[in-house]
Amino acid sequence: MIWKLLRQHISVSQFVGFFTANLVGMLIVLISIQFYRDVIPVFTEDDGLISRTYLILSKKITAVSSLMGEANTFSENDIEDIRAQRFTRKVGVFTASQYKVYASLGVGGLSFGTDMFFESVPSDFVDTDASSWHFNPSGREVPIILPRSYLAIYNFGFAQSQSLPRLTEGVVGMIPMDIRLSGNGQEERLKGRVIGFSSRLNTILVPEDFMEWSNSRLAPDSDTAPTRLIIEVTNPTDHDIARYIGERGYEMENDQLEAGRLTYFLKIVTGIVLAIGLLISILSFYILMLSVYLLLQKNTTKLENLLLIGYSPARVSRPYQLLTVAMNLLVLVIAIALLLWIRSQYMNLLWSMFPQIQEASLFTSVMSGCAIFTLVSIFNIIAIRRRVNAIWRHKE
């Protein structure tokens, strides 16, 4: 009976507008959360669009240093100085093989062999799967990571000119490689296996434990001071990076700093879009609360009369509380349904551009929606009850 009395001043068109605003707000929040979770691997994985920014530094080789036979290596003081800079997140050193390396493999019935070299870096800087990135001397098999550019040179240069089959990364991993190491009057024969390709590091990589084992056996007295460093920077837009490199006379491979600045800018734009979506959502929830207050204001006289004839503030508040909770619940259900449909559309587009991307779980988005529903409903219930109590106190 109370509901029949109070609903007379409810405008259906007005509540449809409030419901739509609330739905849009909830949908923006859920889509923002889910879209971020779905696309974040594209931006943060090692081969993604916005991966971490790494710089590879070396000392300049001048005519004087070349004639004097200087090694152009980094000392411990140099490394500690770089590590102490505010733009540095972490530093890794390249350790080079100090012995002779000869590798041979067979492709298409032909056998290839060449002198080569190995380098190693800490596993944190390796941009491929590191699950098998270790060496066991008893196993006699060396995992190797090649630059991805090497495979491109073979496929589009050498293989095409020699009428040889083109190779995929998976096929290269199955080709056996014979490795002969020599130094310090000793020789080691091992098997090599290519476990991945790197887009970040333009060198032939082996695990650090293999490099320590081989250098200690074949070149125990050699100088292993690094000639190159790899640095992960916190902010590639920091002008101190270019200034520091120029003052120290270091060289940087490729144009890594410019690429890092671009990716950092894209991260900022992504954050701004998410912040705007959250702001719109908060405003839409505020509009819903304002609509309930306006409805209570319209029914002030009836609410006063109901309170005067003996109805408690809790009993008078209940119809409005149930109305807002039901509206919020309906908004949540419809928002989740729309989220599923919209997600299916943009995931098809993402898969066409990035076939390797995997679907993220909906759990975080759904739980976020439920949390928003719970918080907003509790806030609405408390606000309505306080408003009715204020009317009751005013009459007293």
Describe this structure in words.
The protein is an alpha+beta fold. The protein folds into two domains: 2-46 and 262-395, no CATH class; 95-225, no CATH class. The chain has helices at 2-6, 12-44, 63-68, 76-83, 148-161, 169-174, 208-218, 239-248, 256-298, 300-308, 313-353, 363-395; strands at 54-59, 88-93, 95-96, 100-107, 110-116, 119-120, 141-147, 177-183, 186-198, 228-233, 250-252. The strands form three sheets. A five-stranded mixed β-sheet has the order 5-4-8-9-7. A four-stranded antiparallel β-sheet has the order 2-10-1-11. A two-stranded antiparallel sheet has the order 3-6. The longest helix has 43 residues, at 256-298. The model has no long low-confidence stretch (mean pLDDT 79).
In short:
Helix content is 55%, strand content 17%. It is of the alpha+beta class and 396 residues long.
Rg over CA atoms:
33 Å
**Class of secondary structure makeup:** alpha+beta
Main sheet: which strands, in order across?
Answer: 5-4-8-9-7
Q: In total, how many domains does the architecture comprise?
A: 2
Distance between the termini: 25 Å
Shape label? elongated
Strand content: 15-25%
Number of strands: 11
- Succession of helices and strands: HHEHHEEEEEEHHEEHEHEHHHH
- Indicate the percent of residues in helices: 55-70%
What does the average pLDDT come to? Answer: 79
Q: Which blocks of ≥5 consecutive residues have pLDDT under 50?
A: none
Continuous helix count = 12
Quick one: biggest sheet? 5 strands, mixed
